[in-house]
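Changelog note: in this version the structure field was regenerated for every chain. One regenerated record is shown below for reference.
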Amino acid sequence: MSLLEITIKQAGYEKDQQIINDIQFSLESGEWVGIIGSNGAGKSTTIKAILGLLANLDGTVAFRDDASYAYIPERPIFYDEMTLWEHFDFIAAVEGLDNQRYWKNIESMVKLYGMASHVHEYPGKYSKGMQQKAMLLLAMASNPEIYIIDEPFMGLDPHAMKLFLQSVQAEKERGVGILMTTHVLDTAEKICDRFILIDQGRLRAMGTLAEIQKECNLPNGSLYECFHSISQGSEIDNE
């Protein structure tokens, strides 16, 4: 079985208003899959369906052997009255990770990300870029088997983006599966193994860049060019 298998017939926020339809794909160990699409295409709704946050879901979401996962939302979420260090302490207590190795790893990561002097501050008062870094650090703290990441590049400066990409790549190399939504297609093209192209709430294409290029009849086309070719085709079909 794949690390994660998704079969969604339809799903939405209200009973009679379906946002996504006929979406089916999987995630393998050591694989980085990008869910791509324009704003409002259904990317974040797909993520919410996977996380079990939609009451109206007709379909199945199966994690292999109850694989652990960490979710990094587009808009960072923190406990208002807890410092970043207290967030790490909370994770340690919940996950049973309160040991020397855990804390040594935390100390190393906060130094790497330039957050060592801010760990006793409230994340809610951080800048947007610092909040994104804090969310990534909290996600990595529990060593999950799957990362589910929603639009990770918003608010990151070039240095923080480089650290993010290096960190997630290192996680991939230890066998973690990464599922990431983004509309930053030039970056996605460089880092993802496969792509799930969603447009107007439906799965329009799936596969490696080479496979999508073949489907679009654009043998040398960029991910951006393939995306727009498929999107324009779906608009014509719906007219």
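Spot check on this record: The radius of gyration is 19 Å. The chain has a mean pLDDT of 91.
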